[in-house]
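Tokens in:
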């Protein structure tokens, strides 16, 4: 249900989509491979996007070549094992790219900013909570800002490996990849520095648009 809610609410053009049995394709980046430097280098983008992300797409195509292919959200919320793993990693990476922009974009006034102030107190406190979660996450995974539709609140959380908040009935608003391949070429073991610099390229306009696409009243 949450998967349907989310996909109806917003369908970014760069998400991997499939129709009938058409093969999944790697979506184009919304910017050039060197556009996020120095926060994320062109070398890292080539390795991460052209290497890791493309491999997940290839793997899912190979696994589903003799079946009726379904939307990624189906495999994320209804499957376990290899199909789920590959689909979730495709979706997570596509969302990750969309959550960034060259030099970043500031938070617009409106519903999202109001919700942040309501649930965290300020953008600075949200960023601090997100940073703490991203840095403290052990091993591979993702740090998220999510909307909980049951409580109508924003929350910060992390998931291990490929896991996605949609599996818990939560709506993703922002994500940072904390797998080592996302930052090791640029930062080695210095994940805190990566997170600090990553905030400089966060596309808060996009995050706000995702939030407003399924509007939550300000309480």
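Residues out:
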């Amino acid at each position: 249900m949450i998967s349907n809610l989310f996909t109806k609410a917003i369908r970014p053009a760069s998400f991997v989509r499939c129709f009938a049995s058409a093969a999944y394709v790697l979506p184009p980046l919304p910017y050039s491979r060197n556009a996020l430097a120095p926060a994320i280098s062109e070398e890292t983008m080539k390795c991460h996007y052209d290497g890791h992300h493309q491999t997940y797409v290839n793997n899912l195509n190979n696994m589903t070549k003799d079946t009726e292919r379904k939307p990624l959200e189906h495999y994320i919320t209804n499957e376990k094992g290899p199909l789920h793993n590959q689909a979730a990693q495709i979706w997570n990476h596509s969302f990750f790219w969309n959550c960034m922009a060259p030099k970043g974009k500031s938070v617009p006034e409106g519903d999202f900013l109001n919700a942040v102030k309501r649930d965290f107190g300020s953008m600075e406190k949200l960023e601090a909570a997100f940073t703490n979660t991203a840095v403290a996450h052990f091993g591979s995974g993702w740090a998220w800002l999510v909307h909980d539709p049951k409580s109508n609140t924003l929350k910060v959380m992390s998931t291990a490996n490929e896991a996605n908040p949609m599996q818990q009935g939560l709506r993703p608003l922002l994500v940072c990849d904390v797998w080592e391949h996302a930052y090791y070429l640029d930062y080695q073991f210095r994940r805190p520095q990566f997170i600090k610099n990553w905030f400089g390229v966060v596309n808060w306009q996009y995050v706000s648009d995702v939030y407003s696409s399924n509007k939550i009243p300000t309480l």
